[in-house]
Amino acid sequence: MYSKKEQTIAVFGCSHWHMPLYLESIKKHFVCGISDPDADCRRNLAGLLSCGSYASPEELLSKTRPDFAFCFAPHNEMPELAELMIKNRIPFSMEKPLGTHAGQIESLIQLNKTHHTYCSVPFIWHCSPLLELLKNEIAPEDILHMDFSFIAGPPDRYLGISPWMLHAETSGGGCMTNLGVHFIDLALTLTGTSTADILAARFHYADKDIDIETHAIALLQMGTASVTIETGYSYPMYRSGKRINRWAITTRNGMYIIENGQLEIRIFGKPPRIFSMDTDSDTYYAAYADKCLSDSLYGLPPASGLLSMLNVRKILDHINRKAGEQKI
After folding, report:
1. 15, 36 in Cβ contact below 8 A?
2. 121 contacts 305 by C-beta, under 8 angstroms
3. What is the Cα–Cα distance from 208 to 138, expressed in whole angstroms?
4. Which of 82, 178, 240, 276 is the most exposed place for a label (fewest CB within 10 A)?
């Protein structure tokens, strides 16, 4: 649909652990530069991509101007990097959660009213055929309850790659911030709503050496649907698996169960239907990157942008406040 010569790409914050998930797409294009405070990381990646290596975003932009930027940073530094992209009118993708509270995203939206810069946020399930199938199958008004459970590996996996993830000051939160935002977005998408009532939330802090939650559960109300979101950093990873990812959607007509690479549809009075479906979110980042580049090139809006992130962030902030009323 478009050739690598039509867009030049920059990568900011290449030491972020999500960045390798984008490489399949990025390597198909001309990369004009990468930046990161980690000299070894940026040097190694610059060698792989045959591009310039810079210590800061400002240094990179003083030497070259990309057509598109993939942006990564500690969560507390994301608003400043996003502001730099917006002011320079560089179309970009920024990893969620794009800050540590909703006010930062509101400021970016206000800034972008005069700059009109493309900004996409990787709520990655929008690139999955699974979400499209569910949207086609389920009417929002028919949803009674949605239950999402996503339990990833223990927090020490971040020590070697992104230790800032384990501190509330730099990450803004733990597993609900890192993992739960995807399912807040999913629930908003499937219910066709933009807000939620937070009925209950509990966070557990199992590791005394870090100040982020390591297990979290929230009960929400979106329209006529109730929603439970459970996230955690507690799955014992081994060769056979790296996480639990299970969804159960109850409707007036039946149930939709997603787990272990399949979608099971059970409708009252009909035989069950079972579909093979890729339920590993990691596999969709390359498709997401391709879509960002294509949408930006052809002037299309992002599937999920600043407003989507703001809606999710407001709910996340409320969950954090609700859970903070009683720490466990």
Report:
1. yes
2. yes
3. 43
4. 240
- pTM, two decimals, is 0.95
Q: Where are the domains of the chain?
A: 4-123+285-304, 125-279+314-324
Edge-to-edge strand list for the sheet holding 273-276: 197-204, 215-222, 225-233, 143-152, 244-251, 254-259, 262-267, 273-276
- DSSP, collapsed to helix, strand or coil, labels residue 212 as coil
Taking the C-alpha atoms of residue 290 and residue 301, their distance in angstroms, rounded to an integer, is 14
- Tell me how far the alpha carbon of residue 15 is from its chain's centroid: 17
Regarding the domain delimited by 125-279+314-324, which CATH topology (the fold level of the hierarchy) does it fall under?
Dihydrodipicolinate Reductase; domain 2 (3.30.360)
**Mean pLDDT of the region 136-146:** 98
Peptide bond into 97 cis (omega under 30): yes
Write down the CATH superfamily of domain 4-123+285-304: NAD(P)-binding Rossmann-like Domain (3.40.50.720)
Residue 185, classified by CB atoms within 10 Å of its CB into exposed (0-12), middle (13-18) or buried (19+), is buried
pLDDT of residue 324: 87
Contacts (Cβ under 8 Å, ≥6 apart) of 299: none
Mean pLDDT of the chain: 95
Nearest to 229 by CA among 153, 149, 173, 316: 149
